[in-house]
Design goal:
793 residues; alpha/beta; 8-stranded parallel barrel; 8-stranded parallel β-sheet; 38 strands
Length: 793
């Protein structure tokens, strides 16, 4: 019985290699996601070659599991024009069930070229509400993986309003940032997270300074490092909420992790389906800790917005299960009290100051004794001379030999075999005829003419013994009918060959039921692969002095300076920084100065944000409109009032318009009539020019001066440090290399949670971490870029 018949969500496991994938299947996964040689968000995983992907598809489909390929990086113009189709085509033919996609242009490309293959909106798409999910549906997606930060209430609302499938992370690492909204690694590690090469600077230590510049703590802390997620006790509520797929994180983890974690979640899903009392056993939580955990588990955002209890501020790496503490140290021996037994080759970890730690391997010969009435054990181990090693220090087990053995015996060494029924006819003067059937597939295989036996004739037990030798073949003969005339002979080798061929046919024919025919390519795409050499695009002649300049202002003092500048045509007011009343007042002031007023929608758009914006739209419906609207994510498409359809849209860099398809699709999601696209931060000038060349009359915007957001997070630095004051202000993070990153704490007065007793913002507040230095292109030669820029900012 499969998961749908049980009324359960799909259990989706990760795979970094073929061996990981097979382990996930043996452990009970309903589907597996993995990356190929290109376009995957884990570029440093082993990943799958083209042949590996095809083998994986055959293996998964033979075992009635689903296969999802990650295509969840942003895709450049040349890649979309010349590479993506050829890359996906063989996998599509082999029956790939779905692709996980971040790039809107790639989604629409796959929608048009590969009908019948599912498209899943990756969590990197930053879908945080109903409008974003509806936009994903228009791009051709049948499933979305919303931001990990959404609550159960928000997820239920999306499911009810859209009918799309929901895929939710249930276990593994959490990003500090809203996925897809982080440039920190790109800016300070030289490796783009949007291209699968995240260097994880969020796991480094930082110092925090408050709004007055005062240091908040004496030592560096891992302020941007969340704990790992564990949702075992949330499974019943997730099932009742209608979540369609439960996703385990971990394509970079080892095989034991994939097998162990998957098997534990499989057990509890089946336990729920059985109707038995849903109780979590402590041993399963302990196994999950030993497989991988940072400090301790968190249950994530299902029922909370953020909090220090979700963070691993002291240590960003895997510790394991807490096993006890040091009782005493004498010379080079440490006496350790343990809550359970340990075995040779177990790894014990004693964390020290900062990121220091002492790792001890339990030797073959140990002084392990039982002590006390509470089942505790004591062990004496050699330890190096270490200044911070003192009695009372906690001891963890990072690796358990017993757990590794259990996973190997109970999961990795098991086999899945499918029942086969069949018959064999061996008659005088007739060719042998072998029939086998399994799971709806029937094979009829003719054989040679039997011989007349000169000595010992062929007996029934000879045939049955040969037919039951399935070995590593994934079949098990259950029912078999034999019609054998007396006095006949057939070599055992010939029976073996027939058996092997028949079983192989059963396997191949079943797999081939998943294969597809190649669709015809749309006529509009006949020039793909030639566009860059035969482009007939004519460059628009735009002089730099004709391009209007706009200033984004975050306080009134800066706005007054900009109003007096003859170089600036318009002022952009971010809704993140101003109340509804301030926006109305300041817009009138800008118009009075003879300049254009543009509204920048919030960088993070959640359910309560929409409620606040609807109130604002109602207040301003009869007032003079804005001259431009800045849109930062898919969630903000098609939410503006109908009376604002004439207002130009400026899609910011965080919309990630990396290719012409994205530029073509985004306006279709909105109601605007004129669109500008800000050049993405991570594209080069040449790459952006190629995008604009293939985008008809699209107009661009270029940020020539200013800081840009390096990360958006539902977490709050102030809250993590126990200093939440509910005020909209800016603090600072200082990295180990001395970089000072401003952090805007958006405790917006319009987003106050009505249930909050202290009047703090709550449900929609967030942090925006900025680059330490502004981008400065003033005075630089823009070259051909000017031809594609309609606005400077």
């Amino acid at each position: 019985m499969n998961y749908r018949e049980k009324g359960l969500p799909e259990l989706l496991a990760p795979a970094g290699s073929i061996d990981h994938l097979k382990a996930a299947v043996l452990a009970g996964a309903d589907a597996v996601y993995f990356g190929g040689s290109r376009f995957g968000a884990r570029a440093y995983a082993r990943n799958f070659s083209g042949e590996d992907v095809l083998d994986a598809l055959d293996y998964l489909h033979f075992h009635d599991r689903r296969a999802y390929l990650t295509v969840n990086t942003l895709i450049k113009e040349k890649e979309l024009q010349t590479d993506l189709y050829a890359y996906l085509l063989p996998f599509y033919e082999a029956g790939l069930d779905g692709v996980i996609v971040q790039d809107p242009g790639a989604a629409s490309f796959i929608r048009d070229h590969f009908p019948g293959m599912e498209i899943h909106g990756s969590t990197q798409m930053f879908i945080t509400g109903i409008p974003g999910a509806l936009a994903a549906g228009k791009l051709g997606m049948n499933r979305v993986v919303p931001a990990r930060e959404l609550s159960g209430e928000e997820l239920i609302a999306i499911k009810k309003a859209t009918g799309l499938e929901l895929e939710v992370f249930i276990h593994g690492a959490l990003c500090y940032s809203y996925s897809g909204q982080c440039l920190l690694s790109s800016c300070y590690g030289g490796r783009s997270g949007n291209r699968g090469r995240c260097a994880q600077p969020c796991r480094l230590p930082y110092r925090a300074f408050d709004a007055d510049g005062e240091s908040v703590h004496k030592t560096e802390m891992h302020l941007l490092s969340p704990r790992d997620l564990c949702s075992l006790h949330l499974l019943p509520s997730m099932i009742r909420a209608g979540v369609d797929s439960l996703k385990i994180e971990g394509r970079m983890k080892n095989i034991d992790y994939v097998a162990g974690v998957t098997s534990i979640y499989r057990h509890y899903l089946d336990l729920y389906a059985s109707g038995s009392p849903y109780r979590i056993e402590e041993k399963d939580l302990e196994e999950l800790e030993e497989l991988y955990v940072r400090t301790a588990f968190t249950d994530g955002y299902w029922s909370r917005h953020n909090g220090r209890e979700m963070m691993s501020v002291d240590r960003p790496r895997h510790l394991g299960r807490k096993m006890g503490k040091i009782l005493s140290i004498r010379k080079n021996r440490a006496l350790i009290s343990l809550i359970g037994r340990v075995q040779p080759k177990d790894l014990l970890v004693i964390p020290g100051p900062g990121e220091e730690e002492l790792v001890l391997t339990v030797p073959k010969k140990t002084d392990l004794v039982r002590a006390g009435k509470k089942g505790r054990w004591e062990i004496s181990l050699n330890v190096p001379k270490t200044p911070w090693l003192t009695p009372g220090k906690a001891v963890y087990r990072r690796h358990s030999e017993a757990l590794e053995k259990r996973i190997k015996e109970d999961i990795l060494d098991t086999e899945i075999k499918y029942p086969v029924s069949g018959s064999l006819e061996l008659r005088k003067d007739r060719p042998l005829l072998l029939r086998l059937s399994s799971r709806g597939i029937k094979v009829v295989l003719p054989g040679p003419m039997p011989q007349t036996a000169e000595n010992r004739p062929l007996a029934e037990e000879d045939v049955l013994r040969q037919m039951r030798k399935t070995g590593e073949v994934p079949f098990e003969l259950k029912e078999f009918t034999l019609n054998l005339d007396d006095g006949l002979f057939l070599p055992a080798s010939r029976l073996k060959e027939l058996r092997q061929e028949a079983y192989q046919r059963l396997e191949d024919d079943y797999i081939h039921t998943f294969y597809r025919q190649v669709p015809e390519r749309p006529d509009s795409d006949v020039s793909y692969g030639e566009a860059f050499s035969t482009s007939a695009f004519v460059t628009r002649k735009v002089k730099e002095k004709d391009i209007p300049a706009y200033a984004v202002v975050y306080n009134r003092e800066i706005m007054d300076l900009c109003l007096d500048s003859p170089l600036i045509r318009g002022i952009v007011l971010p809704m993140d920084f101003y109340s509804r009343e301030d926006l109305i007042i300041l817009k009138e002031k800008i118009h009075s100065a003879g300049k254009e007023a543009c509204l920048s929608l919030p960088r993070v758009f959640r359910m309560t944000t929409m409620e606040s914006m609807e109130e604002y739209f109602g207040q301003t419906a009869k007032r003079e409109a804005w001259e431009g609207i800045y849109i930062h994510n898919l969630n903000e498409c098609a939410i503006l009032p109908d009376s604002w359809t004439h207002i130009p849209r400026i899609y910011s860099a965080s919309m990630y318009a990396w290719n012409s398809r994205t530029l073509r699709e985004i306006p279709a999601l909105d109601n605007g009539v004129r669109s500008f696209y800000e050049m993405p931060v991570e594209l080069s000038r040449e790459e952006w020019i190629e995008v604009m060349k293939h985008s008809d009359d699209a107009e661009g915007e270029l940020m020539v001066y200013g800081r840009f957001p390096a990360m958006l997070s539902a977490q709050c630095v102030k809250n993590t440090l126990g200093r939440c004051n509910g005020r909209q202000e800016t603090c600072t993070l200082k990295s180990g290399t001395g970089k000072k990153l401003p952090v805007s704490c958006h405790c917006h007065p319009d987003w106050i949670d009505p249930a909050s007793k202290d009047g703090r913002a709550g449900k929609s507040c967030y942090n925006m971490i900025w680059t330490d230095r502004p981008r400065d292109l003033i005075g630089q030669d823009m070259g051909d870029l000017v031809s594609f820029t309609g606005r400077f900012r």
